Amino acid sequence: MNTDFSEANLQYTLIILRNKYLNYTQIKMENEKNIWPNYFNYAILCVIFISFTLSLIQFFSGRSLWMDEAFLGLNIIEKSYFELLQHLDHAQVAPPLFLLIEKFFYTHIPNADWALRLFPLCCFWLTMYFYVQLSKLYLKTESARFVSISLLSLSTYMLFYSSEVKQYMTDTTVTTGMFYLLIKPQLNQVYRSWLILIIGVISLFISHISV
């Protein structure tokens, strides 16, 4: 009788311990699951900060213009606003609105090199903003967002072209921006349509890939 009672108590105790262990394991896994996304969010912020810093270093590095940049820069410097809408010299081709914006920066900023590189740099930062927003909408896990954002923001090509006097950064900005506006869920459908129409028309004059 006592033996049966002791075995019953032992089984009951083992069941209680097993349930406590399972509850502890489940709580631990949930806590770890909640902690990891925060780590990845901090890592994404660090990557964006590093990319921002590297783009500024590239901008202020003072590297020389290569031949294509120099030829396009000569057009921007020597021609008037109206002349930039006509045939360019030195076998150069660029979107008209890109040329006008570059001319505006050159006219109002004393340092010619910085003036010509500032608009592409701003386009790089805007591209990064649109890409981060797209990653939040398309990618479901923080780890995937971290990898995706890192690949773009730390790309040597993106960082190099972020301060190049060519229209390549405007192309990436228009592409990512249009995709973001197309799928952003908070936008009213009528407002979205008008916004896409306006930006679509503008993009024809600032980006070759939109034509």
Can you describe what's shown?
By secondary structure, this protein is mostly helical. 78% of the residues lie in helices and 0% in strands. It starts with a helix and ends in an 8-residue tail after the last helix.
List the helices and strands and how they pair.
Elements: H1 2-60, H2 67-78, H3 81-84, H4 96-108, H5 112-138, H6 142-153, H7 156-161, H8 168-183, H9 189-203
Helix pairs in contact: 1-5, 1-6, 4-5, 5-6, 5-8, 8-9
Key descriptive features of the protein:
single chain, 211 residues, mainly alpha, 0% strand, elongated
Describe this structure in a few short sentences.
The chain is mostly helical and 211 residues long. 78% of the residues lie in helices and 0% in strands.
